[in-house]
Amino acid sequence: MEKNIDELCINTLRFLAVDAVEKAKSGHPGMPMGDAAMAYVLWTRFLRHNPRNPQWPGRDRFVLSAGHGSMLLYALLHLTGYDLSLEDLKNFRQWGSHTPGHPEYDPKRGVETTTGPLGQGFANGVGMAIAQRYLADRYNRPGYNLFDYRVYAITSDGDMMEGISNEAASIAGHLGLGNIIYLYSDNRITIEGSTDLSFTEDVAERFEALGWHVQKVGGNDLDGVADAIQDAINETERPSLIVARTFIGFGSPNKQDTPDIHGAPLGAEEVRETKKKLGWPLEPAFYIPEEALKRFRCAVEDGRVLEDEWNEVYEKYSEEYPKLAAELKDLLEGRIDEGWAEDLPSFRPEDGPMATRSASGKVLNAVAPKLPFLVGGSADLAPSNNTYLKGMGDFLRSGVGRNLHFGVREHAMGGIMNGMALGGMIVPFGGTFLVFSDYMRPAIRLAALSGLHVVYVFTHDSIGLGEDGPTHQPIEHLASLRAIPNLLVIRPADAAETVEAWKAALRCRKGPVALVLTRQKLPVIDRRRYGSSDASRLERGAYVIADPPGETPRLIIIATGSEVALALDAYEGLIEKGIPTRVVSMPSWELFDAQDKEYRDSVLLPGVRARLAVEAACPMGWHRYVGDGGDVIGINTFGASAPCNVLFEKYGFTVGNIVSRAMGLIKTV
Fold it and tell me: pLDDT for 89-133, tens place per residue?
């Protein structure tokens, strides 16, 4: 009887996936068919979750890193009682459905993270595990294990091939993240055919070398899978990988173990033959036996009991540790005490020139003591990025501090930061050089797609970094980052704007933020000299920093970052030449575009067609602000190895060239 109900439940998972893909006429049925057995064991015997409250803080996390098999996840969520209806399954991959082709972060329905690009979910899980260890260290007390959740994932051959997985696995092994348990679906088939074509390494030995606890089982051996998961739970000093030999498209008479079933429907005839082979009714489609549904829906009552037990512990904890409980409640409810802003440093012109990366480090260290959710580090560049939190300790195997050392692993850093942010209780920050944002781009894009609150500290923002040369000098990177929807990019002009940039970054709760900072020192702009507003106007994306005395401007110069000071020096020369000039600091296109038309027109006067943008980067996109009659001083080539001041001169970022180009505009507009 028990064996029969197990088989019934597993086939229910398989055929919900088969029928959904068939109805959609697209999708990946093979992986759900092959992995249904081990997923069933995990979800019905081990996973601690509450379908009626998917965001219960004490729950285990489940990541389907092999996101192409999304119908397996959707079937599990529907069957166990989450807010995902059978109609949602029938609308798989359709407009407006809750069942997109690859899982997209939907915490209210139990989808813990956005996966699709292989390896990202693997890295997200490492971030979730790091978050658990940090939260446990800060809030758990003897007898009160509020945060003891485990991170489970199903990964694929493709995940194992992607470099980000190896980077993330290396960190997880180094840190001894024993709360990670990954099931590796070793089905040995990819789109092009057998993995023998491209992937013949011994994955088990690789992970053992990376410091993981490794086991091998048959993916359809229910008791073997269960025993392996239990052994992994018992192993608390190392992350665990369970290598499960699975069979893609299990049960399909003609397509099992072939690439034909990886990314296409079985076809009507093969669906019939597969259902016959596995003893499944040919009709109706999306059939769910009552016995199977009853078994899966046990998760509802089990989850209620688990959460009730957790809540009882939390109530007693609140009485014994009221201060920590109050802090924790604020985190759980997404509240930030604005008192942190009281300790922000202020910078004055008389303080002397300062690189914005240095100002950023001072801000970060000033606010961190009041913001316990701020945790992060750098990809081996903390001394250059100024991202180290002094006195806050290091996050190591031997102890939990707030400084993470990601090593030279930018891509994994991005994916891990996403995982840390997914619970909503930590705001991770991560630093590297702007040019290396290329290595992080897939993770940055997914953070933006998921609306995750993470902060990237990108320093060495232009040719101004100097002698390291064109391999390290970002040219196209600002344009590239600005092209990502829902990513807030801020390039402050001086130390004062850097303070405001961090304010904006910490208050932005709808998506990731990229702070773009200089290596070279910049003057702290004396805004009093120009009678302009203080740097707090940064929150509006752009603001007038200098205007012609008593006149209407005939020319507008728009600049960002280090070029704002240059624009102000050019302003002096233009005013002397009788050209009424306005200078606009535009640290953030995204913030400016979010303002109403009245404000935007008050900054970029519609009647002034002579507009000159100045930015030491690719000029792509600037014509939206300068218009058809405007001009842009930018860079359309790679940089060169030379001192900063030489490079700025050679590439035309001089007062003389700005004045000359501005005068040319005045004559032609």
Answer: 999 999 999 999 999 999 999 999 999 999 999 999 999 999 999
Superfamily in which the 338-516 domain is placed by CATH:
Thiamin diphosphate (ThDP)-binding fold, Pyr/PP domains (3.40.50.970)
Q: Write out pLDDT tens, residues 470-488.
A: 999 999 999 999 999 999 9
**Region 2-303: CATH code:** 3.40.50.970
**Pick from 554, 562, 556: nearest CA to 544:** 556
Nearest one of 122, 132, 134 to 395, comparing CA atoms: 134
Closest by Cα among 109, 103, 115, 113 to 80: 109
Q: What CATH architecture is 537-668?
A: 3-Layer(aba) Sandwich (3.40)
Residue 410 is a catalytic residue: yes
Which residues have C-beta within 8 Å of that of residue 426, sequence separation ≥ 6?
131, 134, 135, 373, 374, 375, 420
In angstroms, the Cα distances linking 624 to 141, 620, 628 are 55, 9, 9
**Active-site choice (112, 307, 410, 500):** 410
Q: What's the rounded Cα separation, in Å, for the pair 122 and 580?
A: 57
Residues in the chain: 669
Element (H, E) at 216: strand 213-218
The reported pTM is 0.98
How far are the Cα atoms of 358, 362, 461, 586 from residue 355, in angstroms, in the given order? 5, 11, 11, 18
**Cα–Cα dist 335/455, whole Å:** 18
Contact between 589 and 541 (Cβ < 8 Å): yes
d(CA 585, CA 579): 19
